[in-house]
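The records we work with from here on pair a chain with its fold. These numbers are not coordinates but entries in a learned vocabulary of local backbone shapes. To see the layout at work, look at the sequence and tokens printed below.

. . .
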Amino acid sequence: MRRLRTLAPLLALVVGGCLASKQDITLLQGELSTMRVESARGDSARRQQIDQVLNQVIRSNDSVRALSARLAKLQADVANDHYEMGRQILQIQELSGQSQRRLQELRSSLEDRSQSAAAAAPVVGDSARPPAAPGPGQLFQSSLDQLRRGSVTVARSGFEELLKSYPNSEDAPEAMVYIAETYAAERNQAAADSVYGLVVQRYPKSPKAATALYKRALVLKSAGQNAAARASLERIVREYPRSDEASLAREQLRTLGK
């Protein structure tokens, strides 16, 4: 602005058509040249400032993208860890279940041998010995075999006979769980839910109580009763915190309602 004020009289002379000396013209050209240089210098400084701001924006965007990538990787790692944990728990459950089935098979075999030995013993007098009733291990194993073959009704009858004849058997809680599963297989969710509840009511200290609660929660969840399913899962975590089902229940609670 100062230079413009300086040039104003000279410009006025030129524009107004008045005569100007060669010195005035040279002075005017010099001032214009200086203004161009200063304008170019100012433009260069502004371009540098703009470039600096753009570089800062680019660096900020790169930082945000890097943080987003790290967050996504962390979320993926956590999801993979949860999946792996659940898979390992299921493997442990399968191995435990195999061991449990093996014990049941052994009990059934021992009962068979005991009955065979009793049948082979000499009979005193003419009275015939009545056939021995199957033991709890035999009833359980035969009913489980029927269930694996798809004979749901026959299997349920066998498990019910076990509960009737041997209500205090160590196989009784699991037999009741399987009765509930036969109803679930028939899509009778109300009956399955009721029997799962009976397992917890009659055998609250059995490990199968946690199993029944978890299976009941899955039945309720599949029926869209998320509030009741959540209550069942929370009860597992609260009353059976060390069970395998507690870990599975925590995973279900994280996803329930999402």
Notes: The two ends are 66 Å apart (CA to CA).
